[in-house]
Specification:
Elements: H1 2-6, H2 9-14, E1 16-24, E2 27-30, H3 32-46, E3 50-59, E4 62-70, E5 77-85, E6 88-96
Parallel strand pairs: 1-6
Antiparallel strand pairs: 1-2, 3-4, 4-5, 5-6
């Protein structure tokens, strides 16, 4: 969450395992390099909006968090479910409540 707040793509990708999978509604990014490439697109897509975290629930190896964009032109929100192994995200599934930003 701190890495997302920083807006730094490299910091965001650093928490993922080398062979992690990031599943988004319209695409799948496999491996830290593809995930980093995706995160490099986020600052431009966000524009002046910022991600705000609403809830975080951790249960054993799973973290589930709700989020929304503050300052976005349209209301964008969702839920991410992360599986963590040995301190690194190995799988993240993004579920959007509405269309993507």
């Amino acid at each position: 969450m701190a890495a997302v707040r920083s807006g730094n793509p490299e910091a965001m990708a650093a928490g993922y395992a080398a062979d992690a999978v990031l599943v988004r509604p319209d695409d799948v990014h496999r491996g830290r390099e593809e995930i980093l490439a995706y995160f490099r697109t986020v600052p431009e897509r966000l524009g002046s909006a910022r991600v705000e975290f609403d809830d975080l629930v951790i249960s054993q190896d799973t973290a589930v968090f709700r989020w929304h964009l503050e300052g976005a032109e349209s209301a964008v929100s969702g839920t991410d479910t992360c599986t963590v192994v040995a301190g690194a995200i190995v799988r993240q599934v993004v579920t959007l409540d509405v269309e993507d930003f």
